[in-house]
Specification:
Number of helices: 6
Largest sheet: 12 strands, antiparallel
Strand content: 35-45%
Number of strands: 12
Radius of gyration: 18 Å
Shape: globular
Structural class: alpha+beta
Order of helices and strands: HEEHEEEEHHEEHHEEEE
Helix content: 10-25%
Length: 285
Amino acid sequence: MSPMLENLSKLLDVEELDTNLFRSREHVENYRKVLFGGQVLGQALMAATRTVEGRLPHSLHAYFLRPGSSEKPVIYDVDPIRDGGSFTTRRVVAKQNGKAIFNMSASFQIDEPGFDHQASMPTEGLIPPEKLKNTQQLAEEAGMNGAAQNQRRYMVDFRPLDPMSYFDSKVREPRCMFWFRVDSPLSDDPVEHRSALCYASDMALLGTALQPHPISLFDPHLMPASLDHAMWFHRKFRADEWLLYVTDSPSASGARGYCRGQIFTRDGVLVASTTQEGLIRQIKG
C-alpha cells in the first residue's frame, strides 16, 4: 500500500511516456480495495489536456469498463481524434494489464462570448459549511473508523447538509446537498481545477439513488460501482474553495441508479453539471 497522499495535485499529475501516452504517478485506495472512479476521471482529463493548447475542456462522457487495481499504475492512451477551428476532441482509453478499464471522450473549446443564463442555487435551509461536520468526522462519531479512514484518503472535505445521509439507511427523498472543497491549495491552472472537480464529482452522486431505500452505500451487502459519468463545465471556479453539490436521482431500476448533479460556487454561480448511472446491486450475505 502506498503512503497516504496529502495533496490532490500530486495525485492528478500524470507522467508523459511518449506522444499521446501517459501513466499515473500515484493512486488513492477506496474501501473496496479498487481504484476510485473519480481518480481515473481526473487523471484521464489531465492526460487529454496535455495534448491540447489554448482550449479548456467543456464536456466529457466516460464509461467504466472494468474494476481498476490500486496495485498497478494506469496507462492513459490519448487519441487526438479532431482539431477544429473552435472545438477539439480527444478520446482517452485507460488500461491496466493490457486491457481497457475505462474510456472517455472529452471536448475542448476556445474562449468565446455568447448567451448566458443559469439555474438558481437552492437557498432554503442552506447551512454554511463552517457550521457542518465533514464526512470523516461523521463516520468517526458513528463508530465507522474504516469509513473515516477512507474519507481522509480522498483529500476532499465533504460536508453534507443532512449529516447522516451519507452513512445511515434511513429512507429519504432522492435529493442531497453537500458542500465540498479540495483539502490542499491548487495552482492557478484552470485545468487542474477541472480535473479536481472530475475527481470530486464521483463521490456523492451514486449514494443519492439509495436515499429512497433502506440501505446505505457502505452496506456490506451492496455492490456499488460507477458505470458511466458525464460532465459539463459552464463557468470558471476554484475547486479549493467551497462549492455546493446539489444532487437528485429521478430513477433506479435493473440494479442501476441514475443520478444528476449541479455544482454552484458559494455565491450561487452554476459552474458545472453532472450525470451518472451506477450499479447498485444487492448481494447475498
